[in-house]
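User: Structure with biotin, tokens only please.
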Amino acid sequence: IGKTIHFYESLPSTQQVAKELALNGATEGTLVISDEQTLGRGRLARAWHSPKGTGIWTSIIIRPKIPIQQAPQLTLLTAVAAVQAIEEQTDIDVSIKWPNDLLINGKKVCGILTELQAEENQIQSIIIGIGINVNQQLTDFPEELHSIATSLSMEVNDKINRAKLVQSLCFHLEKLYETYLTLGFQPIKLLWESYALSIGKQITARTLNGTYSGIALGINEQGVLLLETSDGKIQHIYSADIEIDAL
Ligand code: BTN
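Assistant:
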């Protein structure tokens, strides 16, 4: 991963460029990175603030030969790789909020967006978009993010070397991906759960079909969140915004 790198000074979104490269046959592990994004995208059609020279805004192409239903596993795998890379480079404790937000002291430092290209139910490519807030100061964030976002340098009071962090991200991603391809999701699931903030906690999950509250039990083989509601039923949460009610 990261043997071929396409670097840009500025792009609307690395996600779009990676998608086009993937359609044109780019090899697995190709990485697109930009110093700035003018139209960075997050999950659920949100914008992703990507100012120049401050963060890691990257999209990585992978082509796993797995059933399409297992694709969400790669998002969780990426979250684990990002935690490992950040912890290695900064010594800060990072935790994961399901499905793929990385938090430091409750504030978001990294987000992951995976998109899939398929033909006849076969995965052609998965584009993993990773955004890490690295060297922003509080004033670099829009006002509405001040209470919910942070950057690595704000947490360590020092500038972080972005090149080293990207290198470490590629290293951990590749190692976990190889583990995944040879041993399956189970070892990744265990690692993910060890970093997850919400497991065993009372949470509220807002989904398109309604809001559910209960205890987060963990994730299943597919990466679906299992929530035990007060009537003892187990809800499968496929996509939601979650809030941890009590830490
Ligand atoms: C989220 O938490 O909502 C996901 C954020 C993903 C942001 C990254 S930055 C690189 C890539 N290009 C984009 O436009 N988005 C992803």
